[in-house]
Amino acid sequence: MRAVRYCFFSFTLCLAVTPCYAQWAVFDASNLAEAVKEFKQLQQVYTTANQTRDQIIQAYNLAHYMAQMPQDLAQRYKAQFAMWTNLNAPNTYGNTSAWVNALNTGLSQQSLAGYLAAVVQVNPYPQSGFGQLDPNTQATIQNQYATSDLAQGMTTGALTTLGQVRSHSESLTQQISNLERDSYSNDPNQQSEMAVLAKVNAANLIQLHSQQDTNQLLSAGIQQQMVAQKQAIDAQNRTMNQAIYFLQNFAGTMQKINNGVSQSIQSISFSTGGH
Question: Distance (Å, rounded) from C-alpha 247 to C-alpha 62?
C-alpha cells in the first residue's frame, strides 16, 4: 500500500515538472466575408442552373409537342385535283398530228409544222402585178401580209407555251404529291422545325413556278388578242383612208364621169327614121 502511494506521488511530480502551454483561437473577419461571398455565388450558380434546366425541358417538351401530327390529318384534309392529260384529236387527212404533238410536247419545230399543215397558207403576191398597183393598194396588201405573218408567230408561240406547260405537268404533279405526302406524314423527322420550314420553302417555289406558267399563258392569250386588235385597226384605218380618198378625188372623178357621158351623147347620131 505504501509502495502504491509512492508511485502516485512520483507520477504527480513528473506532471508538475512538465511545462504547460496555453492556445488561444484567432478570428479573421476578412476570410469569413470571402467565404460568405463565395457561398452566395454558389447559390446563384445553382439557381441559374436550375432555371436553365427548366428552360431546356420546356423547349424539349414544346419541340416534342410540335413534332406530333394528328393521326387522321391526311384523311381529313387530303383532296384530289384535276390532272393534266395529253391532248388527242382526229387526224382524218394527216394535217393535225403535228399540231397535237406541239400541244403535248412544247417543241417549237412541231408548233411550226402543225401551223403550216393545219392553217391555210397565203400565197406570195406576184411581183410583176404588185409593181403595177398604186401605192395605197400596195400598202393594203403589205398590211394584210403583215397580219398573216404576225398571226403565224403568235399562234406557234402559244402552241409551244401550252405544250411546255402540259409536258412539265407530270413532273410538277409528282413534286406536289411528294410535298403533300411529307406534310401529312407522322414521321417526327418530317415534322421537325427545319423540315417544316423546308417544305414551306418548297411550296413557295412550286407556287412561283406555277405563277410563271400562268403568266406565260396569259401572255400568249394577250398576244392573240393583239393580232385580232391589229386586224380591227387595219380595217378601221382602211375605211378611213377610203373615205379620205373619196373626198379628195370626188370632184375629179365626177368631172371625168360627166365628160365621158357628154362625149357619149355627142357621138350618138339621130336619123330622121328614128335609127
Answer: 87
